[in-house]
Amino acid sequence: MMSLAWSEALLLRRNPLAVLVAIGLPIFVVLGLQSSAELMAVVGPDPGTAILTMIAAVSLNLFVYYNLVSSLVARREELVLKRLRTGEATDLQILAGAAIPAVVIAWGQAVLAAIASALLVEMPLPVNLLLVVLALLLGAAVFALLAAATTALTRSVEMAQLTTMPFLIIPLNFSGLYFPLSELPEGLDQLARLLPLTPVVELLRLGLSGTTPDGSTVSLAGSFAPAVQPVLVLLAWVIVGGLATRRWFRWEPRR
User: Fold this and answer.
1) Given phi > 0 = left and psi -120 to 50 = alpha, else beta, which region is 165?
2) I want to staple 44 with a disulfide (CB 3.0 to 4.6 A). Which of 8, 50, 67, 135 is the partner?
3) At residue 246, what are phi and psi to the nearest 5 degrees?
4) Cα–Cα distance between 119 and 173 in angstroms, integer?
């Protein structure tokens, strides 16, 4: 599995623009949004928390989901996945090996954003670091599985720009990063909390600043109860993504 992950990482390293974006994006975002009152009003009570929450959520949605769809479709079209299945690696190891570089990039961007925020803007210690780690772990699993399932609808790398749109646009716009979900009509706000990115944002806000979905602030002890619903929603998406991948994932191109 690690050899597969390493080969994917080498392919990524040959794309200097992708490497530059992966490393530079967190720093540029911190520099550009460190004084954004709108971002702090919606996402977090201080600049560091708001920026870190935004970068971590967007990285999972963009770098894990979109990049993995494109990567898996490209390997399928080149018959790489078919050849790998004739070796010793299991199906799960092949998919995990393909996903590891994208996940490492997303997590690395979150770490870079935390370091840059601590050095350049206000960044208090997390209220509950366990919830932050849970958000990153479960969020990566959800979007990696959804990416694998989406490849069933994606005949070519070019088509990935179209088939990934629903899971790129809808979860991001209703994640709570752009406006408070309380501004939505009654019922729609609860529906938004069932989307795959919203519980990631809620866990990050809760773990970093102790801010609950209703806007109140809690301590470490009080942060566990509000975390139950987002964790359950993410676990449900892991099950849905796993079943969809098992049922519809294709190892060979359609002829």
Assistant:
1) alpha
2) 50
3) -60, -35
4) 29
| C-alpha to C-alpha distance for 224 and 41, rounded to whole angstroms | 23
Q: What DSSP assignment string belongs to 59-115?
A: HIIIIIIIHHHHHHHHHHHTTHHHHHHTSS--HHHHHHHHHHHHHHHHHHHHHHHHH
Show Cβ contacts of residue 179 under 8 Å, excluding neighbours closer than 6 positions.
Answer: 42
Q: Quick: pLDDT tens for 192-225.
A: 999 999 999 999 999 999 999 888 899 999 999 9
pTM: 0.87
Cα 39 to the center of its chain, rounded Å:
19
CB-based contacts of 7, cutoff 8 Å, min separation 6:
none
Q: What region, left, alpha or beta, does residue 187 occupy, with left being phi > 0 and alpha being psi -120 to 50 degrees?
A: left
Question: Could you give the CA distance from residue 67 to residue 99 in angstroms, rounded to a whole number?
Answer: 9
Residues 6+ apart with CB under 8 A from 82: 76, 251, 252
**Dihedral of the alpha carbons of 46, 49, 55, 58, in degrees to the nearest 10:** -100
Using an 8 Å Cβ cutoff, are 123 and 114 in contact? yes
Structure tokens at 34: 């460190």
CA distances to 87, 108, 185 from 46, rounded to whole Å, are 50, 22, 27
Q: Which uninterrupted H or E stretch holds 142? A: helix 129-150
Closest CA to 66 of 155, 5, 146: 146
Which of 10, 245, 5 shows the shortest CA–CA distance to 141? 245
Per-residue tokens: 112: 């870079």
Over residues 96-140, the pLDDT tens digits come to: 988 998 898 889 888 888 888 888 877 788 999 999 999 999 999
